[in-house]
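Two proteins follow. First one:
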Amino acid sequence: MPAMMAYTDRAMTIKSVKPTKVELRDGGVHVEWNDGHVSDYPAKHLRVNCACAECIEEWTRRKLLDPASVAADIRAEDYMMIGKYAVQFLWSDGHFTGIYPFDHLRRLCQCAACKAERERARAAAD
């Protein structure tokens, strides 16, 4: 399969995944997806990757949030589903404006399988 086709198929797959379960756990967030995948996100990883206008400059996409300014013990204190497309977290540092569309949240998965898939996609694009 050509690299572009694989990337397109992957993008379509990511767009169609939705969480079936979201749990706030000590130190992170646990998500079970409708395709059977399970993601466990460290809280700091999610907070640092917030894509709201307070954390990312809208036009240039330059990161405004300094990762060093996020406490190592940050935690998600609550969450709510936003329609049928995203989840929003209330962070222990008071931040609450970040909306994590499901496809963005899935791309942030740090499991070995997702990391390997991202590496394959990068290699195919080169």
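Second one, unrelated to the first:
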Amino acid sequence: MIELLDLSRFCATTPDRANLLLPWSEGDHTYASDGRIIVRVPRIPQVPTNPDAPSLLPHRNCFTDDGDPATPMPALATPEQKPCEHCQGHEDGCEKCDFIGYFTPITRIRFDTKGFADCYLHLINTLPNPQIYPKPRMLPAPMYFTFTGGDGLLMPMKPE
């Protein structure tokens, strides 16, 4: 089963999404999300509810494979880090690169008719035995995925 510490990797990291900074429990599950990806696992007793968390009601029907066959998550190329364009890779960095001097450009990876940010696909690939269900659904429906111990949804990128 995925540990609480592992769930935090899927939480928001910016103050504008303060309601998603920590995992929360609702019903039989514990969730973690940053607003673009959400994972759920069987309820972890020590994770409290969060009355400020967004409603899951609109997405409840998306947590299904619709009887479609699973596809193993493909291996992805390691993203290349580049010097920040604003501070030219200065060791102290700047606000644009979170003060680290470099950034990793986001690449669109296509599955059927939708494009997904490679950074999230890499994150899914860190889960045990990830399987995806990329069958196209009505846009902007998320892609359903499973892993040993849970499942999740990934929102597609906006169309080009």
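SUMMARY FIELD: The two ends are 37 Å apart (CA to CA). Helices lie at 4-7, 118-125.
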